[in-house]
Design goal:
Elements (H helix, E strand, L loop, with lengths): L1 E4 L23 H20 L3 E6 L2 E2 L8 H11 L3 E4 L5 E2 L2 E2 H11 L20 E6 L5 E2 H12 L5 E4 L14 H7 L7 H15 L1 H4 L2
Length: about 210
């Protein structure tokens, strides 16, 4: 298996993003490296017949998240009384996918290794035991709603610092997970507030000083 990203869809404007869509126009170096890694993985699968599943994650979040990611930064800023940076003036949507759902999807896909191209499997390869699969919640959430969920979980309001969109950012992501469903019988579905509540609870337990009233 290889971890990729929804970022590979780049300038694609057709929503929801499907594994059948072309990914030829990455908007960031990060997206370009992920797509390059996918292509290398396909080459390995083709030459050495190594069954390979590429996982395109859609904004995974939850406890034990990276400190540089939006959720951690937003929670830390709110507890510290600092403004929260809101890019593209809040006109952003992300298909936030809770970590428990991500793990469940990976576990199930580990039992569904690709063998050859299959009908109705848009992410499979005609030349190698290789498959691309989206892993997302299939429910885009606005950045404003995301922040409001954090405010509710922390019991605090935040000051929003509105900024232009950053170079390389994609305004909206939305996963078509019909392939994941067909392969595993599973689709991520954890409600945003449930995931945010668990994340804030984790933050409070591990950063008690920062989160104390």
């Amino acid at each position: 298996m290889m971890a990729s990203s929804s970022s590979v869809y780049g300038a694609n404007t057709v929503l929801p993003f499907s594994e059948a869509h072309r990914c030829d126009h990455p908007l960031s170096l990060y997206a370009a490296t992920k797509k390059a890694a996918e292509d290398l993985a396909h080459s390995y699968a083709c030459v050495w017949k190594i069954p390979t599943t590429v996982l395109r994650f859609f904004t995974a979040y939850g406890p034990w998240g990276r400190p540089d990611m939006a959720l951690f930064r937003f929670i830390a800023s709110i507890y510290a009384g600092k403004p929260v940076a809101v890019y593209n003036n809040g006109n952003m949507e992300r298909d936030f996918t809770y970590i428990d759902d991500v793990v469940e999807a990976i576990f199930r896909l580990s039992r569904a290794a690709p063998e050859k191209a299959a009908e109705n499997d848009p992410g499979s390869s005609p030349a190698a035991p290789y498959r691309v699969v989206n892993i997302g919640n299939s429910q885009p959430v606005s950045l404003t709603a995301f922040i409001e969920a954090i405010e509710k979980a922390t019991g605090r309001s935040c000051v929003r610092h509105y900024l232009p969109i950053r170079k390389g950012d994609v305004p909206r992501t939305w996963a078509d997970c019909s392939a994941l469903k067909a392969l595993t019988g599973f689709c991520p579905s954890t409600p945003l507030q449930v995931g945010i509540d668990a994340s804030v609870g984790w933050y409070r337990r591990h950063y008690a000083t920062a989160s104390s009233p």
